[in-house]
Write a structure and sequence with these properties.
The chain is α/β, with parallel strands linked by helices. The chain has a single domain, classed as Aldolase class I (TIM Barrel, Alpha-Beta Barrel), CATH 3.20.20.70. It is 44% helix and 18% strand. The strands form three sheets. It has an eight-stranded parallel beta barrel with strand order 2-3-4-5-6-9-10-11, surrounded by eight helices. A two-stranded parallel ribbon has the order 1-12. The chain binds coenzyme A (COA) and zinc ion (ZN).
């Protein structure tokens, strides 16, 4: 069976904008439970300004509470300072964020597009020189909440720029969940032809209930790495209108039904989602959760 790698971003994208503040210790526990459920990769923290994103404060404490050899743990870094903090915390993998439009970069990291690209290039080179795994998001890859539709050619140009600077992988991110299957086929088709599917990952949001359909198009184009968020939590505080990420349980459920393997134990993942509900004090979960829970209860009764 073909393998798909799922990177759970719930501890970062999932919790960065949640109404409930989750402590670094609780985030570390969540990460450990995700790894125990078989997640091979987790985005564990964002080394960002606590003034900009208060919910991500304590990234160093999160890293300190983890056995960093246990899985492919990465951290989001917006600038050189964030990178230095991530390296000092022992992180071995960092993800830079370059948004595809001028306004989104300004809102998110207080830099214009050219400056953001320069900072990303410089930081990617530094990370490679330090022996860290260095990846870059190209955010708002389909549509920007401020500037509208983003041309595929621009996403390709920015990705090419980041690869040239040493990025090992580009994460094509539909930050506000505005993609549709026709556009996803065109963009992932173009990107895989230009750079090779093995160097790309997809990060999708489910705002319009199209994240799975878009993921399927990326899969058809050969992409085998996906971000997803347990419980379907997520959204960027600087991208109005975004709903949660593609839920890990929805993605994994689809992949297993369609004959792909992920190494993830769905039963254990459902337990993690239930734990998140206790932590956040409300129901969460992807669209498949009621069916998955029912099936699990039937299996256990049998
Ligand atoms: N982590 C922690 N603190 C940081 C930092 C980082 N990566 N980068 C800068 N700072 C601190 C500076 O030391 C300074 O602190 P001080 O006020 O105590 O002196 C303060 O933040 C302002 O620094 P400056 O370089 O002027 O940053 P800024 O105000 O222009 O903000 C970012 C730029 C990138 C730090 C901020 O916009 C940010 O953290 N954005 C992240 C957004 C995000 O996470 N979005 C969601 C995921 S895509
Ligand atoms: Zn996201």
């Amino acid at each position: 069976m073909e393998q798909v790698i799922v990177n759970d971003v719930a501890p970062r994208d999932g919790l960065q904008n949640d109404p409930v503040a989750v402590s670094p210790g609780e985030r570390a526990e969540l990460i450990k439970r995700l790894v125990a459920a078989g997640l091979p990769a987790v985005e564990v923290a964002a080394f960002v300004s606590p003034k900009a994103v208060p919910k991500m404060a304590g990234a160093t404490e999160v890293a300190a509470a983890l056995d960093l050899d246990r899985a492919d743990f990465s951290a989001l870094v917006p600038n050189r300072k964030g990178y230095e903090m991530a390296r000092a915390a022992g992180m071995r993998s960092v993800a830079l964020v370059l948004s595809a439009t001028e306004t989104m970069n300004r809102r998110n990291i207080n830099m214009g597009l050219d400056q953001a690209a320069a900072v990303c290039r410089e930081t990617l080179q530094q990370a490679r020189g330090d022996g860290l795994k260095a990846r870059a998001y190209v955010a708002v890859a389909f549509e920007c909440p401020y500037e509208g539709t983003v041309p595929d050619a621009e996403v390709e140009r920015l990705a090419g720029d980041m690869f040239a600077a040493g990025a090992e992988e580009i994460i094509v991110a539909d930050t506000i969940g505005a993609g549709n299957p026709t556009r996803a086929k065109a963009l992932f088709g173009r990107m895989t032809a230009a750079f090779g599917a093995e160097r790309l990952a997809a990060h999708l949001h489910d705002t319009r209930a199209l994240a799975l359909a878009n993921a399927w198009q990326a899969l058809e184009c050969g992409v085998r790495k996906f971000d997803a968020s347990a419980g379907g939590l997520g959204g960027c505080p600087f991208a109005p209108g975004a709903a949660g990420n593609l839920a890990t349980e929805d993605l994994v459920s689809m992949l297993h039904q369609a004959g792909f393997q992920t190494g993830i134990d769905l039963t254990a993942l459902l337990d993690v989602v239930s734990g998140m509900e206790s932590l956040l004090g409300r129901p969460v979960g992807g669209r498949s959760l009621p069916w998955l829970r029912r099936r699990l209860a039937e299996d256990q009764a049998a």
